[in-house]
Amino acid sequence: MKSQSGRSIVWLVALVATSAFAQLQVPRNDPALRDSAQMAPRPLPESAGVVSWRTLAQVDLVKENNRYSPRFSQDVQALADKTVKIQGFIVPLEAGEKQKHFLLSASPQTCAYCMPGGPESLVEVRLKDPVKYGFEPVTISGKLAVMKNDPMGIYYRIADAVAIK
Question: Looking at the predicted structure, is the pLDDT value of residue 32 above 50?
Fold first, then answer.
């Protein structure tokens, strides 16, 4: 099991890489870059009965006492402590073919060292039974925790989740 400081370092590296990537400027007149942007993976379509990633993205950062904290919309707050279904892509946090603890992402990973989005597009998941890692989306069900002051920067977490076939 990783130590708390080890997890902090992993999250810090991921956040720095994500923010550095977000600051890159793509020249609009470069056809090679424009074409590669068109090939980028697209998020999942919305499905009935599954929490929308657009809903989870309804969060703003507000500065409070020299610190930024998330401020969630009423739609997101209404999901807190409710059993929900979420569909997304597995971002492994541990080695191995079967995963019990991972991040569920709105978009597939395109680089092993890059996070596919910000904290509003990720849910930390702990499954009761492991699921096989793959590149296809998975649907999980469990009680959603909306994290207001998580030290790791996580906005959403589901523990004791189950994978839906």
Answer: no
- Average pLDDT, integer, range 142-150: 94
CA distances (Å), origin 9, targets 38, 81, 95, 144 = 33, 28, 17, 25
Mind listing the pLDDT tens digit for each residue in 33-84? 444 444 445 667 778 899 999 999 999 999 988 888 999 999 999 999 999 9
For residue 108, the enclosing domain spans: 4-164
Helix (H) or strand (E) holding 33: helix 31-38
Q: Is 17 exposed, middle or buried (0-12, 13-18, 19+ CB in 10 A)?
A: middle
Task: Return the CATH number at 59.
Answer: 2.40.50.140
- How far is 107 from 41, CA to CA, in rounded Å? 7
> How many domains does one find in the chain?
1
